[in-house]
Amino acid sequence: xxxxxxxxxxxxxxxxxxCAPKDAAPAKTEFTxxxxxxxxxxxxxxxxxxxxxxxPLATLIxxxxxxxGPGTALDIPENDPIFRGxxxxxxxxPRQAKAPLVVMSHGTGGAGFQMMWLGRRLAxxxxxxxxxxxxxxxxxxxxxxxxxxxxxxxxxxxxxxxxDAVLADEExxxxxxxxRIGVAGFxxxxxxxTAVAGGRFSPALNxxxxxxxxADFTCxxxxxxxxxxxxxxxxxxxxxxxxxxxEAEAGADYRDPRVRAAALIAPALGRSFTPxxxxxxxxxxxxxxxxxxxxxxxATNAQTIAEAVAASRYxxxxxxxxxxxxxxxxxxxxxxxxxxxxxxxxxxxGVHEKVAAEIGDFFDTTLHPAxxxxxxxxxxxxxxxxxxxxxxxxxxxxCGLGVYLIATHEGHILLDGGLPETVPLIARNIEALGFRLSxxxxxxxxxxxxxxxxxxxxxKALTGAxxxxxxxxxxxxxxxxxLGSEEDAQMSAPPVAVDETVADGGTASLGGAALTANLTxxxxxxxxxxxxxVEEEGKPYSVLFFCSASVAANRLADPEKGPQYEGVVEDxxxxxxxxxxxxxxxxxxxxxxxxxxxxxxxxxxxxxPLAFVDPEAFPxxxxxxxxxxxxxxxxxxxxx
Length: 640
Description:
seven-stranded mixed sheet, 21 strands, alpha/beta, nine-stranded mixed sheet, single chain
């Protein structure tokens, strides 16, 4: 049987077409729109392990090719393949369009090539994907170096350096959407991805874990280089300065704020991150692990990370082991190479297809730039302490936007999603109350405006919840647009699929909580005010989550563009008439100033459990908004 080191060298030590021997058998060709190239980047701020040059960053890049064409199947080794990477057009010109960037980190002793199963699939979806070979810890080099195995924090530094290099690349730099950068990592690469997202490694926690009863395989000498610890100790004994570096660098913060989302695949070292650093991670995170992973067991790694990061989604792949997430193998590889052997019934290609689709969907919905509206309206992104409003209703949004959790014993309902950049804040607020974001089963929307629907796509990706909204707002939600102002990119939001539509009087129910949809159009075509009844101190109270009847940016009349949508004025009038017949005990809304949240919260904190009970609040709000509507309508009509 081939040794681990030999197999690693076989699958990693390739240099694209130039490395093939002259008499190699002709490579298979497949039609593909994925391009692939290799870059010999280097980090001039760090030295290589032999101290005779900068730190190398050999990087494989997959990308959307300018045109579909015949691609060469990359099988390693070419003449007698064991691993299959898939097909790509080597050196093809890239498509001249902006694309998100994903940087990837391989596992212990591996290489970027072993993540080709994911890289090429993301490239098919329009991503530029850069997978670096980590110097001293990759089979793509002639020799391992113990520092590459023990000084693992060089890995997240590699990822940041590769982002720098790709952005400076004359060919790829101009094509990268710099506001849409993500990271993916497998095994020890999962540690690196977590670190650039903000997780901080603690040598003390690692030592305690590995000395304790829960110690797992990650604590043992790794088969790729079993002598790494002993060889590293020799270096420490010979160089006192190395110990000083460890002290200064091991637990440092390697967060890269450019990274907006992270996908971890069978991550390692989960118990070695400080809990407070994981709790502070802002980047949404997808954590995927095999059910039968004995190398980096889920309980001490993937699950630990996912439970600590509020804005995370945790997925287990039935039957899969650790090495299921390496490239697929040939029949020969499956017969002779341990890395290629999966449990009975596990289809590695099928797992790759499913997991790559999940990661692609996750990045599609989470790699969105900040809306910018927080700069104009600071309260919309300013943290606010979450609190119980009344009954089983909790406020979990930022200071200036209403987002509400309705908690039940069967899971939770979340009403509205704030802005894209407030998703981590919402997730942390839910966790701070003792609930889990992953227990959200239903997402509701009041209306399809960016400040209330902007976070729904990411929240849906993180929770897998069912999104329920009105038919009138469905097209705007799924198109990510502000109806009637579709050309205004500043008013757009990440598109999100609506799973169920609700009509006037329809309900959304979970765990004994039932919310009724009251269609109140005008502010948007499908504006929906949700109502429910809760109990507080033994008495029932009616609650209305009012959508809005403000004019805001809507055109009521315009000689050139026309109204915001056909029938908008009539919709406003019907809503005002309907609202006059409603008198909820408790008014809540998407903007806290609509119902005097600050003053009521202060009374509640002072000891008044019924501070939010205010039957006069809704009639007063409607009177103000109707008066403003009539004034704005008169002005718009006069201007025609």
